[in-house]
Specification:
By secondary structure, this protein is of the alpha+beta class. The protein has three helices and three strands, in the order ααβββα.
């Protein structure tokens, strides 16, 4: 995991929830942690990390992730055993 991934991880776990986290950085973080990304129907993206699975909607047309999605990614990472 490089410094950019560490920054993204910190941004996800920041309180209050940040509104400027780019979705592409979240996907890169999950891959760096050893997770898998699976394209699904429409804008859905499946993620698997440490045996934990989740499905998210890739944001569009803007590249930044909404607050609720950042909160959901945080919960997914916590359930997968990732700590900031």
């Amino acid at each position: 995991m490089n410094n950019k991934h560490r920054k993204t991880l910190g941004d996800i776990f920041t309180s209050p929830t940040r509104l400027d986290v780019r979705w592409s950085e979240i996907e890169a973080l999950v891959r760096a942690l050893g997770g898998e990304i699976e394209e699904r129907a429409g804008s859905r993206v499946g993620m698997t990390l440490n045996g934990i699975r989740a499905v998210f909607h890739r944001p569009h047309p803007k590249p930044t992730t909404k607050k609720g999605a950042v909160d959901a990614v945080r919960l997914f990472l916590m359930n997968a055993g990732v700590k900031p």
